[in-house]
Design goal:
Strands 1, 2, 3, 4 and 5 form a 5-stranded mixed sheet that branches. The chain contains 7 helices and 5 strands; from the N terminus they run H-H-E-H-E-H-H-E-H-H-E-E. InterPro entries: CAP_dom, CAP_sf.
Length: 183
């Protein structure tokens, strides 16, 4: 306290204030000199499967397509992909291709005759994601794919970055549902 009073009398107070501010700012640094920053955290979110199934089957029925069944194995495949794209804050990945989906289904031990996948980013809820897919020619084609019989869905949130919400819907026809017939 005495030193501060002396510094004020000598006109050194502004300098001491700056020095004190610099010392306090250095407390916010990590060992090694790195500044503190937001760490990216990924959180898998629950998706209402009955709502998803109702939405897709109502839509498929309106378009003359047979209903799909929910498949927890496809939820798992979808969740892996949702985390993959959330980690990158991008849907631009080799894994989002016919070959990539085939590899991921094989890796999961999911033998199938047909498969399709819809990705989405930035959608705040399931309704928004579904409407986005309906409004995209390629995604809509997947929603109405006549050869698939099962569906799974997942969502992963990211606390930093551009998109924050990442959605993946995986559609497939497992071997146990039989070979598709020509339509």
């Amino acid at each position: 306290m005495i030193e501060i009073a002396r510094a004020k009398r000598r006109g050194l107070w502004p300098g001491m204030f700056i020095l004190l501010a610099l010392v306090l700012m250095s407390c916010g640094a990590l060992p090694g000199g790195s500044e503190l920053e937001d760490k990216t955290i990924l959180t898998d979110q629950t998706v209402d499967k009955s709502q998803m199934l109702s939405m897709i089957n109502t839509y498929r029925q309106q378009n003359g397509r047979p209903p799909l069944r929910h498949d927890p194995e496809l939820d798992s495949v979808s969740q892996d992909m949702a985390r993959h794209i959330a980690e990158r804050d991008s849907m631009d990945t080799w894994a989002h291709s016919a070959f990539g989906l085939s590899q991921r289904l094989d890796k999961a031990g999911y033998a199938n005759y047909a498969g399709a996948e819809n990705l989405g980013a930035g959608y705040a809820d399931l309704n928004a994601a579904f409407q986005g897919w309906q409004g995209s020619e390629g995604h809509n084609k997947n929603l109405l794919n006549p050869y698939v019989t099962r569906v799974g869905i997942a969502r992963t949130n990211r606390n930093t970055g551009k998109w924050r919400n990442f959605w993946v819907m995986t559609l497939s026809r497992p071997n146990e549902d039989g070979r598709p017939t020509a339509r």
